[in-house]
Design brief:
six-stranded mixed beta sheet; globular; alpha+beta; 9 helices; 234 residues
């Protein structure tokens, strides 16, 4: 039996995420950048609401090491010595791959930094567990330090842009359009925004811990609504 293509595996992940979101009644935007001019900045897929992750996909386990080939030794050293960036990678940037099972394939993930060999061991996480963990984070009011996966939207976008600037020697600053699909009355609307943070700000909960009062709001996920800025509704 042959191995599915990378975009089939990515599609399976999005479909599985949709099933879990539907089962739990959870709203979670998904932005697919694979094979677009922005995939070098944001990777293949960015998903999340209150807490977001970026995902890269490989066709099979044996091709994981090829990701390192996208990096020069100089860029890789810059990434490796940026301790804050490496810590963010372990929490919110994953590389997913397939592995044959008895009647098909299973999907697994590891942190992007681990895939590049920046950690001695490559700890794997089943994608089903990753999906459930993401959904459970929506509305979770525990402090950021207690969360094992995900970053707030603004922090994830900043991380991805800085990572791209290392890899592409000054790249990572290109403008992007982010979108979210949501129920609006009896229909659906697609809301767009110029940043991931702005896309999600309409469902900020005004509940803050003592730490968050010093500078970070607690995210609850987006709703649709008017705003006199760069955002557009379609």
């Amino acid at each position: 039996m042959g191995t599915p293509y990378e975009n089939q595996i990515l599609g399976a992940f999005i479909f599985a995420l949709g099933i879990e979101c539907g089962r739990t009644g959870t709203f979670m935007p998904a932005n697919l950048f694979q094979q677009t001019p922005l995939d070098g900045t944001f990777g293949d897929l960015v998903v999340g609401a209150d807490w977001c992750v970026a995902l890269e996909f490989k066709r099979e386990e044996g091709t994981v090491d090829s990701e390192k080939g996208k990096w020069s030794s100089e860029a890789l050293l810059a990434f490796q010595t940026d301790t804050l960036l490496v810590a963010a990678s372990h929490k919110a940037h994953f590389l997913c791959f397939s592995r044959p099972s008895e009647d098909g394939i299973d999907l697994f993930a590891m942190s992007y930094a681990s895939a590049l060999g920046l950690r001695a061991s490559k700890t794997e996480l089943g994608c089903e567990r990753l999906i459930k963990g993401l959904v459970q984070l929506v509305g979770d009011t525990t402090p950021e330090a207690n969360k094992r996966i995900g970053l707030p939207p603004d922090a994830l976008e900043a991380y991805l842009r800085k990572l791209a600037s290392y890899r592409k020697k000054g790249g990572g600053g290109r403008e992007a359009t982010w979108l979210a699909v949501a129920k609006s009355g009896d229909g659906l609307k697609i809301r767009t925004s110029s940043s991931l943070e702005q896309l999600l700000e309409h469902r900020q909960a005004l509940v803050r811990s003592h730490d968050q009062q010093r500078g970070r709001s607690l995210w609850r996920g987006p709703t649709l609504g008017g705003r006199d800025d760069e955002e557009r509704e379609r």
